[in-house]
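task queued by scheduler; priority normal; single chain, no ligands, no partner chains; default sampling; output format set to structure tokens
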Amino acid sequence: MTQHIHQYIQRGSSGIKTEALLYDRTICTLYSVIRENAPAMFRLLVSARASALLGFLSYDLPLKKNISDPAGFLHRMGIPARDIYGPVGRLNTLRRFFERRIRFWECRPMTDDPGSVVSPADARVLTGSFADTGDLFIKEKFFQYDELIGMDRARWRRAFRHGDYAVFRLTPDKYHYNHVPVSGKVVDIYEINGRHHSCNPGAVVRSVTPYSKNRRVVTIIDTDVADGSGVGLVAMVEIVALMIGRIVQCYSPDRYDPVMPVQQGIFLKKGQPKSLFRPGSSTVVLICEKNRIRFCRDLLENTRRSDVKTRFSTHFCTPLVETDIQVRETIGEAV
């Protein structure tokens, strides 16, 4: 099977980077040979039980989990030790490294513009619109819209049907706390059961639509309230993936403590920690109402760059390029 490289744009420098896709050969085999020739086995391998087992083997197996030199490991991963919140020496297992906390108030600065929308994660982002019929084919590869929001949530499906979206794909080396992208009041939060498909680009382009098939937590935030961001309703869809055991809701209004339950009626402050993926790679999708947000020009322009080789562009026959972005960076503003 022919493999294609996957590149993205580094925000700020606009440089083209090639992603090292972990377990790429295994995932491509799973989503081609096994999926096509052994569908029952494929369904078993993307089940919650199999995903938990893979997570244990990758992060908790006693012979593999210890990190003898946490500072050196951080250096090899390109993570500044000064960014870590708490003792670096404590990051002596793969799980602790994955669930690390950072001094986000220092190393992830955020604009004070009340009408801004910020990135919920350290991730690679794609932006788009459900109202752009020219991209309908592409959207249907990424989403099955009604399933993404929830088949029993007709109110929210109507609210966001022609809105704008941003897909944030986290890789295993990333910081895995999700932060609140807007300020506002939670008007609904619910979990949708599903599979644990990989969010590797190779899996996405094989029509798996993991973003609307996988287990996920949907939080609806009303920003048209006092001290809100003023961008209407925002849906934050947190999606598990291969080796993700669960999504832990752990909102804190000040750094990481105290932890407060995310429930209907609570006010969420933009830029603060909201949840934690445990562990693996995963995805967050933000959806805004139609004509309520204007995405940053560089993100929109990067999406359509034809000089970047991505698996999305290759398989969908149109430029579709991610931008690497940090949590709390501005991604758009209120219209």
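post-processing summary
- The radius of gyration is 19 Å.
- The longest strand covers residues 184-192.
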